[in-house]
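Shape matters. Shown next:

___
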Amino acid sequence: MSVLNPAQNKPRYELLDGLRGVAAIMVILYHFGEAFATSPVDQNINHGYLAVDFFFVLSGFVIGYAYDDRWKKGLTTGGFIIRRIIRLQPMVIIGVLLGLIAFIIQGCEKWDGTSVSTTAIVLSLILGLFMIPSLPGAIPEIRGNGEMFPLNGPSWSLFFEYIGSILYAIILHRLSKNSLRAVVIFSGLVLTSLAVLNASGTFHIGFGWSFGVDGTYSSGLGFVGGFFRMAFSFGIGLYMSRNFTPLKVRGAFWICTALIICLLSIPYVTFNGEPSILNALYDLLCTLVIFPLVVYIGASGFTSDATSGKICEFLGSISYPVYIIHYPAMYLFYSYVWKNGLVFDQVWQICAGILVGVILLAWFFLRVYDIPVRRYLTSLLPRRSH
């Protein structure tokens, strides 16, 4: 999810930074499609939710690259977790505050029009700021559709990113390659079972945004699915970083960019127009095979000219801010579209404006807030842990 500041004297993987930005923009396009979809089957940019799995692979790979060799040099579990909090939390806070503003603008009501009390909003705000998820139907779950983080839905993936980081700090960095491979295989098998047995109800692996799979708590399969999405993808990224031998790939960034756009844009794979196990198999193919391959190719490539280097640098720098702040704008967009019964052809200009506006706002918060805050907090750490 995040653009990690690698250890000193280690070069950045510029292409991976750029690919993260491409995937973040595809998430915005996917969320535009949610405004006009009547079901998972007919949504445009249909598989945009799989970008999260790609982010998890990237995180595992980059964290392993940056930190695996630092534990023997004095890095502590607490020190690592503090660095992750410094990297992730400032923009989480901005995302939640923007979500609060959007909710107030919408009239402080659930999607069904029910008014929400000030107490519920304050509780939701506090939980969101401290990355504590809400249970479906609980008082802080103020939108009424089961989101773990109703003021800023995409925070759910950061919640699992934190879990992955904690597991890495406590357990995963200590595992041998064979043990880590076993974790990856087990996680992949569980995720496969959830997909092919239709735990989602519509043969996809878009788990994690809610504890349940239908906006209710149900059996907690949403949380379980989200955990194993993270566990497999983060784990295989970490495993690849420990077994990485670069390939010789020309045009790696453009090849990987084209793959990401195509894979996330593929329509729902139906059978006779109905939800199908074929879609589950497609999700699994992307998550278990293609995304790790894309990360491997991206890590093998390099920017050969100033233009592509600047593109990757820009996309990488805005990727996390874009991802974590864009959804409050989506809440307002959904409300506007649904209340007025609009179709895409009537609002595509608004979509374009929101996309540009989110990118500009992300860049603003990055430069004016995120970088200065992280720089200041990092300066407070003991010198040897910088």
About this structure: Residues 1-8 have pLDDT under 50 and may be disordered.
